[in-house]
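Re: weekly structure request thread

Next one in the queue (529 aa):
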Amino acid sequence: MSNDAIDTPSAESQTTSLRLYDTATHSVTPFTPLTPGEVRIYVCGATVQSSPHVGHLRAAVAFDVVRRWFLKLGYKVVFVRNVTDIDDKILAKAAAAGEEWWARAYRYEREFTQAYDLLGVLPPTYEPRATGHMTDMIDLVQRLLDRGHAYVIPNADGTPSGNVYFDVPSWPEYGALTHQETGTLAAADSNDADAAVADRMGPSVDAAGSDKYNTVDAADESADKHNPRDFALWKAAKSTEPATASWPAPFGKGRPGWHLECSAMSHRYLGADFDIHGGGLDLRFPHHENEMAQSRAAGWGFAHRWMHSAWVTQSGEKMSKSLGNGLSVGAVLADHSAWVIRYALASVHYRSMLEWSDQTLSEAESAFERISRFVAAAGTALGTQPGADEVQGVPADALPADFVAAMDDDINVSNALAAVFSTIRHGNSLIAEGASADTIASALLQVRSMLDVFGLDPLNSQWASATNAADGEDSATAHALDALVSEQLAARAQARKDKDFARADAIRDALTKAGIEIEDGASGSTWHV
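Done, posted below.
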């Protein structure tokens, strides 16, 4: 899936002050792209075994904000997010439900895509499926075999069984990402001290809400392995699985191990070296460690920086289907707007734990009220609103310095949002004082442009369509309501001008009874539901 228009930079030059955390080095360091003016990012996407929940969307929103900041800084961004549409759990759940595995995968892939769209996550430049890149994966396995970093388990008669493993002892650099060699257990099950105390992270648990990486791959437990740390590259076809779930290969018919796909697809779309590899914190070990080992053992480079987002919790427990506390996207959208859900996900630093609670959502609702009231009041004072192109075209160096400094400090969203609300307070004061149109317009443009970095500009057409999709309203309804209320406000203003206060009060009372709250200011009246 290509989306070149989205990835067009918004400025002509790039900042040199951006600093980002690197999981591999445990430090925040200056970011320098491999190719001037361009950033290439690979983020692990969904395993489409079942419906998405809020935990799954944490990483998607977090890296969407990172991507948007790169765009605001003027970079061209090539953003790859994969889809894992073949794995053990997809096969098992499809069999239990009596359906084709590929039909199940496609249905849930569509659900994930809809959830991303509803929350304003920009489409990736490329979104490859694992099943569409079997040739790449088979070639990579063969390359590792030829270089002496993999081995095939033979059948009793000496023929290839289809099971191929990466030979961990053959690669002395194994462990370079997480600095551990505890086998194939996920980080949540290992004794990785860094996972427990990494800056702003807390204990390492399910960062993306994924269930895929919390258990050891069955093939990785095989007694046929040469070493306990070895992991599956290719898994032999099983008689108990559908024939459609395996592919012919020189080393035996089968399907890829669950680490292989990202190495093959990142190389296909981003080349041997790229700037950033992202994903949930739980994917660091073994998934990302194994990815890096097999890619480098193949003679390629790999990601030059690793970024990992933390997880979502409820009542202190990680959000996952296995604990029964996963909140589906449909369920949360039934009670809150898509804007509010995105704000709740985006307003916490990507490396910090996000506690999902009524308070979290209440704070997001309050933020929406403050933001929308200012945007509406400023628009009324000016008689117009900046267009989307104008909002998105504001370069980073034209935004408040404290906002830029916060975003350049490892995407410090808390301080960046503080700058947003500081500008809103200043803008409200300008409106109350009857300041010039130019000064009010400047504050309004800055606020909406800063919010656009978060994907939260309230007047972006995204939110009209997202709200409509969630609650079934036609977009014309919002425009009709605005026209009707604006007409009533104009009539009320005329009545006050004519000193017909009884009529003015009657109009206000009627609007209040209908659920419309009016606020009077020096530059006119604004309203909200």
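The chain has a mean pLDDT of 85. The longest strand covers residues 160-166.
Next request, please.
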